[in-house]
Design goal:
Distance between the termini: 30 Å
Number of helices: 6
Strand content: 25-35%
Mean pLDDT: 95
Shape: elongated
Length: 216
């Protein structure tokens, strides 16, 4: 993923806060030699204190075979995207039809080492942590090995702990454009108000404000 300086996070807090609210991504795993990579959509929970991601998948999933001897994986999360028509991006001194169309989006990629969790007790603890992330209000029985209602189902799945080695994040929201062009884009997003437009506009305004407070 190419990250220009104007698309880079302002600090670690920016991508961490965004990732905390975006817990569904695509796990890319190297296939066997000659085969394409495998990509598994999955919910996950990221723990910044432990620098790890936890998730689980069904035991018959072919991803487990792909992980054997190839534990290097990448978790990709993309959201808050919007298409920006060319005329919106035209500079003030050029014709609208000369503007270049582009995409707005936020993306975080976590390079990880995968650790498979098969021990029933450890697997139950992992699932309970994941349950606490997605269902903090409770309402479900505890996940415990050998206990109803979930204990007997543990054998049908495997846990996955992803040790985070590197984080790459990108917030592509016209950071290199002039103030006037950025304001125009924001106005057009508000007018169009399509799927993703409000989130994209929010990122653009937030990042523009952050730059203005740090500029000399």
């Amino acid at each position: 993923m190419l990250i220009h300086p104007w698309d880079a996070p302002t600090d670690d807090a920016e991508w961490q806060d965004w990732l905390a609210a975006h817990d569904f991504g695509q796990l890319a795993v190297n296939g066997a030699p000659g085969d394409p990579p495998m990509v598994q959509p999955t919910h996950f929970a990221y723990d910044p204190a432990r620098r790890e991601v936890i998730t689980h998948l069904a035991r018959p999933n072919p991803i487990w075979r792909a992980l054997e001897g190839r534990p290097a994986v990448l978790l990709s999360v993309v959201d808050d995207y919007a298409f920006i028509p060319g005329p919106w991006q035209a500079e003030e001194d050029e014709p609208p039809e000369h503007g270049v169309p582009t995409s707005f989006y936020a993306a975080v990629q976590l390079t990880c080492t995968a650790h498979v969790v098969d021990d029933p007790e450890a697997k139950a603890a992992l699932l309970q942590r994941q349950m606490g992330h997605f269902q903090p209000e409770g309402g479900s029985a505890p996940v415990a090995a050998g206990q109803v209602p979930y204990g007997r189902q543990l054998s049908g799945l495997r846990g996955l702990r992803l040790e985070v080695l590197e984080v790459r994040a990108k917030f592509k929201y016209a950071g290199k454009r002039s103030e006037a062009v950025q304001r125009r884009i924001g106005e057009r997003l508000a007018e169009r108000n399509g799927p993703g437009d409000a989130a994209a506009r929010g990122h653009q305004e937030r990042r523009r404000a952050a730059r203005s407070t740090t500029s000399p």
